[in-house]
Amino acid sequence: MPPEPSDLAPLVTGWFRTNARDLPWRRPGFPAWGTLVSEFMLQQTQVSRVIPRLEEWLGRWPTPADLAAEPPAEAVRAWGRLGYPRRALWLHAAATQIAERHDGIVPSDVDQLLALTGIGAYTARAVAVFAYGDRHPVVDTNTRRVIARSVRGQGEPGPPNAKADLPAMAALLPESRSEAAVFNAGLMEIGAVVCTARAPRCEECPLREVCAWRAAGYPAYDGPVKTKQKQFAGSDRQVRGIIMAELRSTHRSLTDEELRALWPDGEQFDRALAGLVADRLAVRVDGGYALPHD
DNA sequence: TAAACGTGGCC
DNA sequence: TGGCCAAGTTT
């Protein structure tokens, strides 16, 4: 028998209160700006790699206005090797928009958050909930997986579904604002440390007694096959990364010859560099290329 | 809608 | 060791 929605919340919140990891963004008094920065950094990136960059970032730019006052190049440099450097550009753009449109205050309204560059359905609600304590469903890869298993009895969540995922999480949310916030964080935490994609630790799971997947005998996933990641070695992505690392390493512009020496396949190099320029991660300056200055 | 987008951790 | 996965968003 699948769990009633009301069954989950007390198990999740009770477990979270004693098992939550001690993470920077959970410290008392952590600023909304810090939450926003952390959520940008956490997109597709592991917690352990984010923490050191986050601390540096907030030490250097304690408010959105501080970041907005710098050229985008500095944001991209400070991003370092976190990956997906367009996120650094987006975060800089969002900081500028917050400074200009919101008096430098990170908004709590989901629609205003969604209007900021680089903020989508997940990040907007994560900020509203974790920074401001508002009541919204927060849906990420962790909560989708925990719901698929514990509620629907399926091993994997299947592809994201904008129409279904938010209502599915909303149906589980406690009425109380503060309980809802803890529930959001708790369900994510269960997915991150217990109900993991591979080798879930079901014996330690607070939902084990109500889990529909467990009750059904852990049936194998039989839904749509997910598109698999392409090989990174030799990809355009790798070339882009190599070029960006070189651009980050210096404050002067680099000549076409200097950059071209980084990769043997000239045609692929051209494609990668053109892509970076199109994405505004690199700009043409006095006969060479550099990170973007406003 | 699906593909593109970095880098590293983990088994 | 190679493939899957990671607090997603954009086009």
UniProtKB/TrEMBL annotation:
* Domain of life of the native organism: Bacteria
Matches recorded under Gene3D superfamilies: Helix-hairpin-Helix base-excision DNA repair enzymes (C-terminal), Hypothetical protein, domain 2
CDD domains in the record: ENDO3c (cd00056)
Q: Which InterPro entries match?
A: DNA_glycosylase (IPR011257), Endonuclease3_FeS-loop_motif (IPR003651), HhH-GPD_domain (IPR003265), HhH_base_excis_C (IPR023170), HhH_motif (IPR000445), MIG/MutY (IPR044298)
Which residue ranges does the record assign to the HhH-GPD domain? 41-193
- Which coenzyme or cofactor does it need? [4Fe-4S] cluster
Q: Name one GO molecular function term.
A: metal ion binding
- What are the recorded Gene Ontology BP terms? base-excision repair; mismatch repair
Q: Does the keyword Aminoacyl-tRNA synthetase apply?
A: no
Q: Which UniProt keywords apply?
A: 4Fe-4S, DNA damage, DNA repair, Glycosidase, Hydrolase, Iron, Iron-sulfur, Metal-binding
Enumerate the transmembrane spans.
Answer: none
The answer to whether the entry has keyword 4Fe-4S is yes
**Under which EC number(s) is this enzyme classified?**
3.2.2.31
Q: Which family does it belong to?
A: Belongs to the Nth/MutY family.
What is the name of the protein in this document? Adenine DNA glycosylase
The organism is Plantibacter flavus
